[in-house]
Amino acid sequence: METGSPHDTGTADVPEAAAPDAAHAPAVPDAGAAEAVAEPGAGAAEPVWRALPPGLLKMRRLLVVVWLGLLTLATALVPGLLTGPGWAAFAVLPLAVLVWGWVMLERNWRSWRYAERADDLLISRGVLWREETVVPYGRMQLVEVTSGPVERYFGLASVQLHTAAAATDATIPGLDPAEAERLRDRLTELGEARSAGL
After folding, report:
1. 153 to 63, 150, 157, 174, 176: CA distances (angstroms)
2. Amino acid 37: pLDDT
3. By the 8 A CB rule, do 141 and 160 touch?
């Protein structure tokens, strides 16, 4: 009896003592931590974020260069021809906005990311003010893929998510068309499964 009870308490203590050691042991080496992130169980705890393709940044930069370039020319030519060359210096203002916009567009593009979890979709964006939207699959009513003429030229499409509450509607811009269609099909399937379960 005495041998049985210390042995039982010993086995109860061993997993408790071994669990922290096992938890600390893989966390120390980087390789063990990388393998833990790659496991499905760890992936469910920490979402796998996906960034937007670089084509969106190219498209937005081209639009900024075209519009602000035309504004710079107009600001330089019209006052310069009508009032004198000194007034053409105002063209520096739209040119400065163009340079600032070039840098800010990249920062904004890098801030966009999305992650598919088991029960919802996460969308994160914003440079100064971070905004993270959680869209539950069960509340999705409509998922559509849109692509305007400029987006089609750059081979991009946007996924628009419409939910029961307008406040949780969301958009993921600038995706590859194949990824946009895959995301639309998966979100529609998951939304139907979740609403059928309710």
Report:
1. 13, 5, 10, 12, 12
2. 33
3. no
